[in-house]
Design a protein that fits this description.
The complex is a heterotrimer of chains A (about 100), B (about 600) and C (about 180). Chain A contains three helices and no strands. Chain A has about 100 residues and is mainly α. Chain A has one domain: Helix Hairpins. The relative contact order of chain A is 0.13. Chain B has two domains: about 525 residues, no CATH class; about 55 residues, no CATH class. In chain B, strand 1 and strand 2 form a beta hairpin. In chain B, helix 4 runs antiparallel to helix 5, helix 12 packs antiparallel against helix 13 and helix 14 packs antiparallel against helix 16. The longest helix of chain B has about 30 residues. Classes of the chains: A mainly alpha (about 100), B mainly alpha (about 600), C mainly alpha (about 180). Chains A and C meet through helix 1, helix 2 and helix 3 of A and helix 1, helix 2, helix 3, helix 4 and helix 5 of C.
C-alpha cells in the first residue's frame, strides 16, 4: 500500500505551491486559481486520513468532508467570480495591488 | 451691659459696618456717618474703659465670641483679652483711627470709589482690633493676616495705575515672608508647649524651658521676630514701606504710621516673658532696631518726595521701638509707639492736606513759602516736625528720652551712641522738610484749602502731639523698666540739646541753599545710595530675582514635561510603525498570515526538539 | 504497482500545479488546473474513495472549472491581456513569496519526518479494508450528517443570491425616480 508519508508530502507540496501562487500573483483570477489548488491539497489529506484510520470498519467520513469542501469551493468560486466581474467593470483591470484604498 | 460684652463689641462694630458698607449702596453722607460713627463709638468705648480702669495697673478683662477649633489638644476660641497693654493699643487704634476716618471724608470726597475706601478702612480697623485683643496666637495671626490683606487692598486702591499694583504686591509679598516665619514659630510653639493661649505660653515656657536650656525657645522667638520684622518694616524686610506710599495719604497715616506697622512691636511686647528666655534674640532685636534706625534716618535725609521722607522716618522710629524692646524696656517702646502714632499721623495728614491743596504734587523742591497761604497745615507740620525731632516738652521728647535712658541703663553704650546719632539725623531731616516746604521762595500756589473735616482732625492731633507725653502706668507694671538712676551729665543733657544743634545746621544749609543740589561728585554717589534706601531694591534684585529668572530660563522647556513628551513621541513612533501594517495591500495581509503560520510551526517544532 | 502509479500521478499533479501558477495566459493556467484535478481524482481512486473521485471529476473539473473558463472568456482580451500579465508577474518580484513558501514547506516537511516509523507500519494495515460504496455514504448523509447537508444547502443558496446581486451591472439596479410616488 501507499505509505502515508508520500501522501502527506504530496498534500504539503501542493499546498505550498498554492500559497506561493496566492502571494506572488497580482491577477485576481490567478489568486482564485491558487486558492483552488490549496483546497485540493487539503482535500487529499482528508480523504487519506479517513482511509488510513485505525477503525476496523471502513470509514466514509473523509468523503463526506470532501463533499462539504466541494460545496464550499463552489460557493466561494461563485461569489469570487462575480466580484471579479464587478471589479473588471469598475476598474477595467484585475490588478489587486491597485486596490489599496482601505487604509489610513 | 457687662464689661465683657462691651469688650466683645469693640472689634465687632467696625466689622459690622464694613459688611454693611459692602452690601448696601448708601449716599456719601450715610457712608461717612456709618464709617466714622463706628470707629468713634469704639473710641468712646475705649475711653470709657480707660476711665473705668483708671489708676488700676493689674486688671484683666476677658470675653469670648465662641469656639473656633476643637481637635484633640488644639483648642482655639475667639477669645478677647484686655489688659493695660491692649487697652493702650485699642485707645490708639480707635482714637487715631476715628480722626483719620473723619479726615478721609474730606480728603477722598471727590474720589468715585468712596464706598470701597471706607469698607476697606473699617475692615482694617476691625482686623487690627482683633489682633491686639486676641488671647491666643492663632486669633492674633488671623488679625495679622487681615491687616496684611487690607494693607494690600488699600495700597493698590487706585488700581488702574499699574505702579500701585506693583507696590501693593511688593508690600504683601515681603510681609508674607515674615508671616511664614511667624507661622512656623506658631507651629513650633504648639508642638513644644501644647497650647497657643498667650498667657498660658508665658507661664508654660518658664516651666518647660530655662535660661540654660533655651535653644528651642530662641528658635521660637527668632521665628516670631521674623514675623515682626516683616510687618514692622525692619531690616532686612524694610523696603516695601517707601513704595507703599502709593496709596492714599490717610491710608499711609493709619496703616503705615500708626497701626499696622506697630503690630510687630505689639507681638514682641505681648510675648515679653517668652522673649526673656532668649536674651540672645533680644540682643538681635536691639541690633536690628539700631541698624534700621540709622538706615531709615540716613535715607530720609536726601529724599525729595514728601511721603517718602515720612516713610523712611517711620522706618527709623520703628527702629527706636525695636531697640527699646531689645534692651528690655518694653514699656518705653509702647510709650514711643503711642506718641509716634500721634505725631506721625499728624505729619501724614498734614502732608495729605498739602498734597490735596497743591493738586497732588509730591516733590518738596517744587514747594516753598507756603507758610502764609496754608496756616493750619503749616502749624500742624511745625508741631509734628518738632515732636519728631523731640524738641523739649513735645510728646516725642518724653518718649524718646525715656528710650535713650533705658538703653544706657542696660549698659549698651555703643547702641546708645548709634541712637543719639539717629536722633541728630532725625532732627536734621525734620527741620529740612519744614524749611524746604514752608519757608523760602513760593513756587506753587495752592488752589484748594483743606476742608473742615480735615482741619478738625489736624487740630485734634496737634493737641495730642503736644500734650500726649504721659506714659500709661499700666505699661510699667506689665513690663518693668530698668533702673536708670546713674546717668552722667553728658548722657543726660546731650539728647536734649542735640535737636537744637541739628536744627541750626539745617537752617544754615537751607540759607546757603545747599538742599536740592549736590555740588561734589564724590558726594553724589553717596547721595544716590542713600536716596535709593541703601540700594536694597537693587540688592534683592541681584540676589534673589535674577538667579530665579535664570533658573526659570533654564527650565524654559520644562524638564518634567520632557518625560510626558517622551511618552507622547514614543506612542507617535509606534503609531507610524504600526500603521504601516495597514497598507491596504491584499498580498501583504496574506504574507502576514503565512509568516504567522511559519512562526507558530517553528514554536511547535522547537517544543518537539526540546523533548 | 500501486506505488508506481501513485508516484507518476503525484509527479503529474505537481508539475501541472507549477505550470498553473507560473503561466502568463489565463486559459493555459486553467487548463493545467484541470489536469491537476484529474490527477487528484486518480489519487482518490488509488485510495479507494471512488465516490470522491467521481465527484471530483463531475463537479470540480466539470462545473467549477467551466465556470472559471466562462468568466475568463468574458474578460479576456487577447494579446493585451497577455502583455498585461507579463508585466504583472515576474520571477524576480516573487522572491519574497518563494522564500516564505519554502520556509513553510521545510518546516512542515520536518514535522512529517518527525513521526516515528511504528505508526507508519500500523497505518499500512488498513489496506485490507473493503472499498466504500455510495450506499454507505448515502446512509451516513441522511443519518448522522443530515444537519451538515442542510447547512451546505443554505450556503449554496446564499452564494447564489450573492453572485446574482453582485454581478448585476450598475445600470440595472437604478431605481427610477417616478416609482417613489406610488
Amino acid at each position: 500500500m501507499i505509505p502515508i508519508n508520500w501522501i502527506l508530502f504530496l498534500s504539503l507540496s501542493l499546498f505550498s505551491i498554492g500559497i506561493f501562487g496566492v502571494l506572488a500573483r497580482r491577477n485576481l483570477l490567478f489568486v482564485l486559481i491558487s486558492l483552488e489548488l490549496m483546497l485540493n491539497a487539503v482535500v487529499i489529506l482528508f480523504v487519506a486520513a479517513s482511509r488510513y484510520h485505525e477503525a476496523s470498519v471502513a470509514n466514509s467520513d473523509g468523503q463526506i468532508m470532501y463533499l462539504l469542501v466541494l460545496t464550499l469551493a463552489a460557493s466561494e468560486i461563485a461569489v469570487g467570480l462575480s466580484l471579479v466581474i464587478h471589479m473588471y467593470r469598475q476598474h477595467h483591470h484585475l490588478d489587486i495591488d491597485k486596490l489599496n484604498k482601505l487604509r489610513d | 451691659m457687662s464689661l465683657s460684652n462691651l469688650l466683645l463689641v469693640i472689634p465687632l462694630l467696625p466689622l459690622l459696618s464694613a459688611i454693611i458698607l459692602l452690601f448696601c449702596n448708601l449716599s456719601r453722607l450715610w457712608i461717612s456717618v456709618l464709617a466714622v460713627g463706628s470707629i468713634s463709638s469704639v473710641s468712646l468705648i475705649s475711653l470709657f474703659l480707660n476711665f473705668h480702669f483708671w489708676q488700676q495697673t493689674d486688671f484683666v478683662l476677658t470675653a469670648s465670641l465662641g469656639n473656633w477649633i476643637n481637635i484633640a489638644q488644639l483648642n482655639i476660641g475667639f477669645g478677647l483679652y484686655l489688659d493695660s497693654l491692649s487697652l493702650v493699643m485699642i485707645t490708639i487704634i480707635s482714637g487715631v483711627g476715628a480722626l483719620i476716618h473723619l479726615y478721609s471724608t474730606g480728603f477722598m470726597f471727590e474720589d468715585k470709589s468712596f464706598k470701597r475706601y471706607f469698607t476697606y478702612l473699617n475692615l482694617f480697623v476691625s482686623a487690627m482690633l482683633f489682633l491686639v485683643l486676641a488671647d491666643n496666637l492663632l486669633l492674633l495671626y488671623l488679625g495679622w493676616e487681615g491687616v496684611g490683606l487690607c494693607s494690600y487692598l488699600l495700597i493698590g486702591f487706585w488700581y488702574q495705575d499699574k505702579n500701585n499694583n506693583l507696590a501693593a504686591n511688593k508690600a504683601f509679598l515681603m510681609t508674607r515672608i515674615g508671616d511664614t516665619a511667624m507661622a512656623i514659630g506658631l507651629f513650633l510653639l504648639f508642638i513644644q508647649l501644647g497650647t497657643l493661649d498667650i498667657q498660658a505660653i508665658q507661664i508654660k515656657a518658664h516651666i518647660v524651658w530655662s535660661l540654660s536650656d533655651n535653644t528651642i525657645a530662641s528658635i521660637c522667638c527668632l521665628l516670631l521676630l521674623g514675623g515682626a520684622v516683616g510687618k514692622s518694616a525692619q531690616f532686612p524686610l524694610q523696603n516695601w514701606l517707601p513704595d507703599a506710599m502709593a496709596g492714599p495719604t490717610p491710608v499711609s497715616a493709619l496703616i503705615h504710621a500708626a497701626t499696622m506697622v506697630t503690630a510687630g512691636i505689639y507681638l514682641i511686647a505681648r510675648n515679653s516673658q517668652l522673649f526673656q528666655l532668649a536674651p540672645d534674640v533680644l540682643y538681635i532685636v536691639a541690633l536690628i532696631g539700631t541698624l534700621t534706625l540709622l538706615l531709615g534716618a540716613s535715607a530720609a535725609m536726601v529724599q525729595s518726595d514728601l511721603k517718602r521722607i515720612l516713610a523712611y522716618s517711620t522706618i527709623s522710629q520703628l527702629g527706636y521701638m525695636f531697640l527699646a524692646l531689645g534692651v528690655g524696656a518694653g514699656a518705653s517702646a509702647v510709650f514711643h509707639l503711642m506718641t509716634h502714632a500721634f505725631f506721625k499721623a499728624l505729619l501724614f495728614l498734614s502732608a495729605g492736606a498739602l498734597i490735596y491743596s497743591l493738586h497732588h504734587e509730591h516733590n518738596i523742591f517744587k514747594m516753598g513759602g507756603l507758610f502764609k497761604k496754608l496756616p493750619v497745615v503749616a502749624v500742624s507740620f511745625a508741631i509734628g516736625c518738632s515732636a519728631l525731632a523731640s524738641l523739649p516738652f513735645t510728646s516725642g521728647f518724653f518718649s524718646k528720652e525715656l528710650i535713650l535712658e533705658q538703653v544706657i541703663a542696660s549698659n549698651s553704650i555703643g547702641l546708645w551712641w548709634a541712637a543719639v546719632l539717629g536722633a541728630f539725623i532725625t532732627a536734621f531731616y525734620s527741620a529740612r522738610l519744614f524749611f524746604v516746604v514752608f519757608l523760602g521762595q513760593a513756587q506753587l500756589s495752592p488752589n484748594k484749602t483743606p476742608t473742615k473735616a480735615m482741619s478738625i482732625a489736624l487740630i485734634i492731633l496737634c493737641l495730642f502731639s503736644l500734650l500726649g507725653g504721659i506714659q500709661p502706668s499700666g505699661l510699667t507694671a506689665l513690663m518693668p523698666p530698668l533702673n536708670a538712676d546713674n546717668l552722667t551729665v553728658l548722657q543726660h543733657w546731650l539728647p536734649i540739646i542735640l535737636p537744637f544743634i541739628a536744627i541750626s545746621v539745617a537752617w544754615w544749609m537751607f540759607k546757603t541753599e545747599r538742599f536740592g543740589k549736590t555740588q561734589y561728585s564724590a558726594l553724589k554717589g553717596i547721595h544716590q545710595l542713600l536716596k535709593s534706601g541703601w540700594a536694597f531694591d537693587q540688592m534683592y534684585y541681584i540676589i534673589f530675582i535674577q538667579p530665579f529668572k535664570f533658573i526659570c530660563q533654564l527650565n524654559k522647556h520644562d524638564v518634567i514635561d520632557l518625560f510626558y513628551r517622551l511618552i507622547e513621541k514614543t506612542s507617535c513612533v509606534f503609531h507610524k510603525l504600526f500603521s504601516k501594517f495597514q497598507n491596504g495591500h491584499l498580498r501583504s495581509y496574506n504574507a502576514s498570515l503565512v509568516i504567522f503560520c511559519i512562526l507558530a510551526f517553528a514554536w511547535f517544532l522547537s517544543g518537539e526538539l526540546i523533548k | 504497482m500501486l506505488d508506481t502509479i501513485f508516484i507518476i500521478t503525484a509527479a503529474v499533479i505537481l508539475i501541472s500545479a507549477l505550470l498553473t501558477i507560473t503561466a502568463h495566459n489565463v486559459v493555459h493556467a486553467l487548463l493545467y488546473l484541470v489536469i491537476t484535478m484529474l490527477g487528484v481524482s486518480l489519487v482518490f481512486f488509488l485510495l479507494g474513495s471512488s465516490f470522491a473521485a467521481a465527484l471530483q471529476i463531475i463537479v470540480y473539473a466539470g462545473a467549477i472549472m467551466v465556470l472559471f473558463i466562462f468568466v475568463t472568456m468574458m474578460l479576456h482580451q487577447g494579446e493585451k491581456s497577455l502583455a498585461q500579465e507579463r508585466h504583472l508577474f515576474h520571477f524576480s518580484t516573487s522572491i519574497t513569496a518563494f522564500i516564505l513558501c519554502s520556509i513553510l514547506f521545510c518546516e512542515l516537511a520536518y514535522l512529517i519526518l518527525l513521526t516515528p516509523v511504528e505508526t507508519l507500519s500500523s497505518l499500512s494495515q488498513a489496506q485490507y479494508s473493503p472499498a466504500i460504496t455510495v450506499k454507505q455514504i448515502g446512509i451516513q448523509l441522511y443519518g448522522p450528517y443530515s444537519l451538515l447537508v442542510v447547512i451546505s444547502a443554505l450556503m449554496l443558496l446564499s452564494a447564489l443570491i450573492t453572485a446574482i446581486h453582485i454581478s448585476k451591472s450598475a445600470a440595472s439596479i437604478k431605481i427610477k425616480p417616478e416609482d417613489n410616488n406610488l
